[in-house]
Amino acid sequence: MTVTLDRADIQGNVLLPYGRATFPMGHLLLFHADRASLETSGREGGDRTRLLRRFLQGLLPRISSGRLYRSKRTTELATVVDEPPTLTVNVAFSHSGLAAFGVPQTTLAGFPVEFQEGMRARAAVLNDTIDLWDEVWQERGETARIDLLILLRVHFARALAKSYRQQGIPDHLHRHCCDYHPEAVFEGARRLARRHLERRSEQLIRQADGLGLRLLTGHARSNQPATTERRWQHIETLTRTRDEDGLPSRCDDPALEGLGTDRRYGEYEHFGFLDGISDPVFEGQHATAQLQAEKVIGQGRLEQGRWQPVAPGEFLLGYPDEAQEQTAAAIPFSFSRNGTFLVVRKLHQDVAAFEQTINQHVPAFQAWLRQRPQQAQGLAEQDSEQGSEQDTDAREARLLLRAKLVGRWDDGTPLVVAPSYRRWQAFRAEHQRLITAARPDRHGHRDQAALRELRLFRRRFRDVRYEPDDSDGARCPFGSHGRRSNPRDSGDPRLSEQASDRERQQAGSVLVNRRRILRRGMSYGERLRPQTDAADRATAYVDDGAERGTLFMALCAGLFRQFEFLQQQWLNYGAEFGGGNDVCPISGVMAPEDRSERSKLIIAAAADSARPPFVMRPAMAVECRGGAYFFMPSLTALRQIAQGMVDPI
Amino acid sequence: MPSSDAGFYHLTSLIPIHRGEEASSLWRWDPQSTTAVHSLRELLDSFRSVDVPDLEEEEHGRTPIARPVPFSRNERTHFARLVVVEALAYNGIKPPDTLIGLARGLLGSEVPLREKADQLPGPYLLVLIDFDCPGGDPRSVADYLAELWLTMEQEWTLILRHCPGFEASDPLRRQRSYMALLLDHEIESTFSFASYAWAAERARRWQPTTGRFLPRRSGSQAWPLLPLALWAVCVVIGLVLALMLLVRLLVGLPLSLLALALAAPGVPLPSWLSALRLEPAVLPSLLIVLLALGVLTLLALPLWQRLLRQANRPWPAQPGTDLRSVLKALHLQRSFLALAEGWQNRPAGAPGSLRSRFRDVLQETQPDNLEGPALRPGQIASIRRHRQP
User: Fold this and answer.
1) Are A624 and A120 in contact, with CB atoms under 8 Å apart?
2) pLDDT value at position A630?
3) pLDDT at position A623, please?
């Protein structure tokens, strides 16, 4: 019998992420439980704790759970589900925060050491430089310690409907048939959502302030313009226009037509890659068995050539994990159960540096692609294709180089599936053809066969396996971001060097099963757009010094085993992938003593082509600007904290 | 009946709770709908929180909010605990037997890497109630439940709405399905929480004049130890004898057949074979002895059953252990302690003798009168809470 999770007991955004287009905007608020008055007299301590608990009690009914609400995912569900909340509220505590709320010492001591210490103290493990961090994350002094995190996300559809009304445009056409909205309407809705969010944040801050929780400020660099909001971290999904998505303004279906400037919230991050395609799927995660069976492909664990859901104990405390034991957790059981750990990292992205470095490498990369293999015999498929791409123009080379960095093309197509530009284009064309075929006709009728075919095709985005087709890393470099952070079946320790293709097809993900994390990141900052009047691409991107990047958020049951291992061993170090001290070209952080030397990315040619690999020196364009570890309790545990009833005996 | 002992009945019921999102009809604290398990937890917490003494509050000299727990409205309930059981404790993979593992390894079949973890088919509500039931008659459980319903109808309705099988439509059905849920899902238990019968028994043996205890009266409950021991020895000897004979038979019979087979062609028998085989003449007598032992064992069976019945017989109720007496006793304890403390700290030259103070206490507390002053049911604290004015 599989695990049935009590969705109402687990905080929202844990089991499934809040949709990036549904809840595209949010605030991250950090609070300090003010203990200044606590030290003056012994009796104040009790009063303080009681005030804090009262704040939590007031917040409890508003905290969003993992219950399903009406959305695209739940249309197939037979049971009635509620409308999504207008604003989601989620809370997480740091170790000192739990202590401030009066959680007993026995429980506090049961937490793993890495959580007790916090991310700041673990800088040596993660290669972080605290001086680069934003003021708020630096936690300088006892009075600046981060105790409580509150994450708000606002529902966008209601703001959009209101904006349509304000603009006097009948919205039924746009809202139901198409993701894109006229620019004026879209901007109006963004303003409305933002105002709503700000109002609610201010309200929350006021309430907290009266009950002993002081807001911590200093979320951006002090050199930012004075208008920059530094009281909270604003997060927002990046937008895309029809033009950027390459959609024609006119097409056969009038419902799908629109202006090139029409906008939507997209899936792309600042560097321009489609983000968040693959996220672990674990037992009990999806609402129906059918959905679970579909989603597990490419996202679960791979065993004997089949995808299976990961054990729930990898992401939730109180369940069996991949080692078939209970992950160690604080007592009492009811306090830890259904809780999880949250990693927050503010990752600044220097888009200009990233683009410039790519462009600097393009000529050499083009030349490398043109090199004829020295051996005419036994050409690998990829090489023969790359060899034929003599007329590869700079654009194609640039896109391929970008893909080599992350392991996927800009639109998320895996390199393993489409190793060359031509095959990528063929893949895209096929995808587009299937989308068109599966589109509902005038009567709203959908061709079920085409729909099924589309669903099968879309599996190829997720069902990435490196064995046996890419055992040598000629398609997707071992050092690329995707292959480092989730090596899947690559490097299965049970495979011998002489393993046959048949054996390799049975390769499993045993190396990775205990290192998975649920990614819940969001972008922040406006997109850096290229200057249109620049002479060439190399000079088109100029850094404007603004704040932009990804607010990386990850959930796991073991911070040390999952997140820290991933960051330290796989992203900040390359030995596992034969890359020595090389760090991940996207999210790696170099040790301070190594920073005099630039990291490299080795892009391999096929093993039998006798061609030297291409050596790239990627820009270290991502910089960690802060972070912390939090515990995200279940609603039961929150109630226990709020009522002062955590009983570890 | 193991669920009953020393005048108490410990009712243990394991009632299934609605699964998943079927909870739209539930009574809720807040309008957000939720799962039955979660809502039930909240509800039970709200019952509990009203009477757990807040130590912090107490230290600051503030009186805690004293709203009695709903069970305290009943004067027979010693202890009640309601727990949501959602999952089985998982202790990790069972270590495989080393020998079996070795054998499997030699045979080339690996031990399966992944073991299925047991899951409950759904969540359960565990109800544990200890109450006074002097006769120990299981039928009186229904009487108690009916009595409890009179004082806790509202709470039980709120609780049991989370369980399939509860019919909330009209009062009669509510009560009937409440009784049915608790009784049909009852499981036998041998664990009692209200176990102060031993203390009452000991108190009765105490001699106030000497401060000594009388020896425990064995009375009619004494076991006939000597006959029992003799009987046990006989049974053991008989069993050992039977086992030896059986082994002899099992070894001897095939060898006898072998000897017969060999004897036919006229092969000389080896000496060990002729020693071990059974003479055909012995065979019937052996069988008769075995049969006799078997019959003896069968005859001993009723005695064995009687032994079990005796062991399962509940301890008789001890006077003074019912809830009202206990509450009265705690009140007396508190009053006498206050008397002693007051006498010890009396100011020099204060009027009155110890005797007069004692008389006052007796008058005030009325030790023999159960209807007189006593602790309220549900008032957990006894001596610790008491403070001098």
Assistant:
1) no
2) 97
3) 93
Please write the tens of the pLDDT for every residue from B143-192.
999 999 999 999 999 999 999 999 988 889 999 999 999 999 999 888 78
Question: What residue in A sits closest to B83 (Cα-Cα)?
Answer: A334
In degrees and rounded to multiples of 5, residue A25 shows phi and psi of -135, 145
CB B149 within 8 A of CB B174: no
Residue (of A161, A505, A535, A548) closest to A353 by Cα position: A548
| DSSP assignment string, B106-129 | HHTPPPPS--PPP--SS-EEEEEE
| Separation of alpha carbons A201 and A23, rounded Å | 16
- Secondary structure element (H or E) that encloses residue A99, with its range: helix A95-100
Q: Is the distance from CB of A52 to CB of A100 less than 8 angstroms? A: yes
Residue of A nearest to B34 (CA): A8
Contacting residues of B for A61, CB less than 8 Å apart: 29-30, 32
Quote the pTM value.
Answer: 0.84
Q: Report in angstroms the alpha-carbon separations of A381 from A384, A386, A388, A469, A607.
A: 5, 9, 11, 10, 12
Contact A1 B34 (CB under 8 A): no
> Do A333 and B90 meet the contact criterion of CB atoms below 8 Å apart?
no
Chain A contact for B115 (CB, 8 A cutoff): yes
Task: Count CB neighbours of A339 within 10 A.
Answer: 27
Tokens of A233: 């971290």
Q: What pLDDT digit, counting tens, does each position of A540-594 carry?
A: 888 888 999 999 999 999 999 999 999 999 999 988 888 888 899 999 998 877 7
pLDDT digits (tens, 9 = 90+) for A543-552: 888 999 999 9
**Both structure tokens of B317:** 């109720």
Whether B38 sits inside 8 A of A8 (CB atoms) is yes
| pLDDT computed for residue A407 by the predictor | 94
Kindly state the average pLDDT of the residues A200-219: 93
Contact B20 A67 (CB under 8 A): no
Put simply, the answer to whether B38 touches A6 (Cβ < 8 Å) is yes
In the three-class reduction of DSSP (H, G, I as helix; E, B as strand; rest coil), residue B242 is classed as: helix
Q: Is B177 on the interface with A (CB under 8 A)?
A: no
Q: Name the nearest CA neighbour of B142 among B5, B319, B9, B44.
A: B9
Q: Cβ separation of B119 and A65 shorter than 8 Å?
A: no
Question: Which residue out of B17, B18, B21, B113 would a mutagenesis test of the A interface target, given it has the greatest number of A Cβ atoms within 10 Å?
Answer: B21
Interface touch A67/B34, C-beta < 8 Å = yes
Contact B62, B97 (CB under 8 A): no
CA A8 to chain B, closest CA, distance in angstroms equals: 6
